[in-house]
Structure formats: C-alpha cells, structure tokens
Predict the structure.
Amino acid sequence: MGKLQQLQLLFTHPTEFVALAQYWLYHEPKRDITSPQEFKTSGYDRESMKRCWFFLEKTSRSFAAVIKELDGDLARVICLFYLVLRGLDTIEDDMTLSDEIKQPILRTFNQKLSLEGWTFDGCGPYEKDRQLLVEFDNVITEMGHLDPLCREVITDITHKMETGMADFAHRAATSKTIPYLSTITEYDLYCHYVAGLVGEGLSRLFAATEKERPWIADQLVLSNSMGLLLQKTNILRDFREDADERRYFWPQEIWGSYGFKRPEDLCLAVEKQTADEQKAMWALSHMTLNALSHCVDALDYLVLLKNQSVFNFCAIPAVMAIATLEVCFMNRDIFLKNVKIRKGEAVKLIMQATNPMTVAYRFRDYARAIHRKASPSDPNFLALAVMCGKIEAWVEHHYPTFVTFTKESKTIEYNTEDPRSLIIKRDHELEKEKVRRERGANLQKGELERLVPDRHVDQSIPWQLYVFVLGAFAFLLVFTGMVVLVSLWYFYGDDWTWKDLGTQSIGLGIQRDGNVVRQ
C-alpha cells in the first residue's frame, strides 16, 4: 500500500487506518518457526522442511502467516497438507498439459506421496507454483516425518480429491464445446472436491493432533460447508479472471436462467452497458445467495472449536469471505476486474476475529449490508432477505445483542431501550411471583399437616422414649447428688460426718468478740 493510498484511507476509513497502524506497530507473531526452541515441532532445522516453509510463503503469504501461528506440530502438519493439495491443484489447473498426461498423474497422486524422490517438471513455464512440483521430493521426505495418523489423513483426502479433479478435468478436455458446470448440484460437487474435502481433512487433522476434541473429525457437513463458503466466494470474486482464461465455474443453471447463452455474455453486457446489464447483476445476486447459504453452518462449526490458534485459523478466512461477498454484491466491477476488500479492512477483521461472538457480529453486520444493497426488483430479493434473516436469527439466538455481561461486576445487564428487555423483565417478575406462590402454598400445606395428624401414621409414643427419659432423669439425680457431696467435703473438710448430715451441728456459730465459734 503506497503512501497516497494510506493518506486516502486515513480520510475515507479512519478506523481501518488506525487498525492498520496498530497491526504494523504492535502485532508480533505468536511463534517464530526459525527459532531453535521451535525446531522440535516446526522441523526448520531440516533442509527439506525449510524448503517446504519457503514454498508455503511463496504460494500464499497471508495463509502462511496464519498457519505459522498454529500450536505445536499442527503448523507443520497443515503446511504439508496445504503443499500437497497445492501441488495437486497446480496439475489440475495447468492448461498446457494434455488430458493424456494429466489423467494418470492426477489419479495416482496420492501414491506419489510415498514414492521417495518423485518430482514433476512438466508444468508450463508460466504456471505460478511450477517450482513446488519440481522440488516436490522435499514434501515427500517430510511426509515421512509425520505421525502415521496424520499421514493417513492427508493421503486419504488427497485420494478423494484427485478422483474428483480428474473427473472434471477429463470432462473439460473431452467436451466439444466450452465446458460449463450445468447445475447447482454439479457446482456443489465440484466445490466439495476442491474445498469441502479440505475442510474435512483439516477437522480430522485437528483431532489427530489432539488440538481439538476427537468428535470434531465427524462433523463432515459443517466441515464441508466451511470449505464451500470459502471456495464459492473465490469463484464469485474471480469471475473475470477465470473468464479471461476460458475457465467457467458459475453454473449454467444460474446464469442461463437470466437469458444468457454463454457466461462471457455477462461481461459483455456490463462492459457495453446493454439492457442485459441488470440481468447480469441478478445472476451475481443469485451466486451471492448460493454462497450465503453456508454461513450458518460455518458459524455452527466455529463455536465448536476450543483451541485459540485453531479458531483464528478458521475464523479469519470465514469472516474475510463474507466481507468479500458484501463488497462484491451488486458490484459491476466483478465483471470487469478482480475485486478485493481493502487491506485496512482485512487487518481490522484479523484483529477482531478472536472469539465466536465477535465473529458472529461481523457476519451479522455484513449480512445487513448485503440486505441494504438488495433491490426489490431483484428476483432473488425475498430469498436474500430470508438468508440474511437466518444469519441474524442465529446471532441473536447465540449472542443476544440486548444482553451485556460486565466482567468487573460479573453481572448481566439488559439494554432498557430494547423492547425485548421488557419481556425479560416481565418474565423475571412472573418467575418470582410463581416462586412466592409456591412457597406460600408449601407453608400452608406444612401447617395443616402439623395441626391435623395423619391417621395412617402411628402417633403412639414408643417405649424406648420412656426408658430414655427415665434413665436421663435418674442420671441427673445421681450426678447432682455427687456434686453436692463433693462440694460439702471441699468446703468443710473433716468438720462433718455422714451421720451429721441433715443436722444442725454443721454450720457457723455466732460471732463473739470478733471470733467465730461453733455452737
């Protein structure tokens, strides 16, 4: 970001400028994988792993920063998982490779992960991640250092993904016309292969490394939705870039329903500002609606995560996705160029995506922004309103906005300006009244039971009680007598005898001339 852009950001979005400045000044990575103290988990002391970290940084700098902050050995595991899938995706995306070459490599790629020294240098010279495959032997070497359970998960996910990619790549290569994804179901299947399986693999790795609870690996639907939300957002955002490379991922069921014969016609309608431009925007609205359908599942998944680094790893891309959907919605630039959110906004989201409540509120805010942009003339207007309402309802159900918790006083406070607070207040009053009535009824019932004996209960006094009372009385008499006798002996000593008890011989005489004499 240049100085002019920073100055513009300061005046147009000052809060984002502040967030960007704070991030640059105060943010420090939670761990340094190059530190000798981290060698045990990061593997940076091995040359092969050092190259893997280099390729991760080269392929995706922003994603690499999030991966490096994962706890313990999970960072190294996810790094290798990402590179394996990136290598597979590079082969699938390379348009210079013929189907005859691509098919056998794709369908056996999982076997290559255990084939020591395997590399591939057949990708086109302009392929971005070509060098990763040229030095893929480093990834294979590091796969051997992984825990067997983690290695099994990566191999299994790779096998499932390569099968789907190979099927779609073969269809694209053998199609006599420009290949399109025909239906939304087919679109979902493609996104499942390239992204949903990634979500499944990540959940299984979270459990395998014991960073999350074991049952998180079984959350297949939620894991799939997390992946589909991110993938569909990228497909929506990169429409023009993909169209320029003659790659089309928007399903024909969507853009065809608005009268377009080819997906390129959407770009032409916007470029030339024809009468069909509005229909192109409706197609974009439909794609946005389809992506938003995974937001609730994504929120459900995030609240299951307990490890802070894992939560950040999943929450940051998710909140970035819905922010991207908002900036792309009803934005004609989608058909003209690649659209991204502002860097200041991205940094602000990174700093805020630290807990489920804040992330949920960001989802709600962007859903509201999308709803505000929607036009009543849009055929998808009602469905969009319902979808945004579902997100709002989820947030209000889990984190009601009219309730605040004060950490200092540890009390719950309600916003008195919100009508829902009156309902809560009335509910509390009714609950107190119910408790008071029940308490009064119980007291009356207990008093009646005390006054009116139960005829079914034996009211006679047991003989053991008589024996106890008489015994206690006899013991008290004996004890009292002993105390009296001991007291007499203590005070009078030998001046009295047992036969003198009860007589007047014991006692003080009269005082004569200041002396006390016995009578």
